[in-house]
Amino acid sequence: MDKKRILFLVAALALIALPLFAQQFGSGWVRILALALLYVLLALGLNIVVGYAGLLDLGYVAFYAVGAYMYALLASPHLIENFEWIAKALLPSGMHTPVWGVIPLAAGLAAIAGVLLGTPVLKLRGDYLAIVTLGFGEIIRVFMNNLEQPINITNGPRGLDRIDGMNLFGFDFGKTKHIGDFAIPSVTLYYWLFLALVVFSVVICFRLERSRIGRAWMAIREDEIAAKAMGINTRNMKLLAFGMGATFGGVSGSMFAAFQGFVSPESFALNESVMIVAMIVLGGLGHIPGVILGAVMLSALPEVLRYVAGPLQEMTGGRLDSSILRQLLIALAMITIMLVRPRGLWPSPEHGKAAPAPTNTR
Q: Is residue 262 part of a domain?
C-alpha cells in the first residue's frame, strides 16, 4: 500500500471519528462541523459555475432556498393545514413524502431554476452577470417572504416548521442511537450523512473536471470567443454549468431543511451568497481541495471568533458590540489572506500559470 492510500485512509478515519471526539465538548461543536460540510457542498456546486465556467453568480443562495422550501413543503404538515381538500381527498394521514422522492424533486427543481436563470443571461459577462444573478437571488428571497397572501404557501417571514427529519429506509437521523451504553446523538448522524454527500460530490466534481465537459467549461472561462471558434457550443455548456451547480444547491437546501427542522427567508439572504463566493475565492478558484479548505475555514471561523470577540468586548468595557467585532475580525482575516495569497490558500497548479518562455532553436 503506497503512501497516498495510507494518508487517504488515515484522513477518512479521522473525519469519521471527529464528531465522536467533538461531542465530548458539547453538541454545538458537532453542529458547527455538520454545517461546515453543508457549506462545502454549496461551495462545490458554485465552483462549477464560477471556478470551472467562469460565470460570476451572486444569486446562488436562491437554489439553496428552492431546495430547502421544496423539502419543507413536502415533509411538513403546512400544505395539509392550509389546503384541507388535499388532506381529505388524497392524504388523510398527512403529507410526509419519502426522502428518496423529495431530494430528487428538490435537485430537479433547482436545476430547472438554474437553467431558467441562465437562459436570459447567456450573453452577459463579468459585472453585468453578477448584478443580474444578484437580483435573481433577491427576487427568490422576497418571493418566499411574501408568498403568504392571498394563498399561504410559504408562511411568509414566519417560515415553515415541524419539518420531518431525514429518514432513509427506516433509519431515522433525527433520533439518538445507542450502541450499548454509548449514545450517538442525531447531530453526529447528520454529520456522517453530510460527509458521505460531500465525498460523493467530490468524486462527481473530480470526474467533471477531467471530462470533455469540464475542459469545455475551462476553455469558456479562459476565452469564450476562442472556445466558440474551436467548435464548443458555449450556450449549452453555460446552461449545463448553471443547471449542474444549481443541483448541488438544491440538494444542500433539502439537507439544511431536514437538519434544522425549520426554514425561513432570513436563512437565504444576500450575505449567504457573498459568503459562498468568498469561500471559493479564498480557497482557490477551480481547485477542489482549495474550495473545501475555503468553505471549512469561512464556515467555522465566525464560530471560533466568538471566543475572541467576547474577551475583546470585555476589555473595551462593552462599548463594542461582539457581533460587529466578530464581523470585523473575519473581514481582517480575509483581507490578510488575500494579500498574502492572492490566488487563494490552495490554488490550482495550472490555473494562472505563466506560459513557458520560448526557446531559441538557433
A: yes
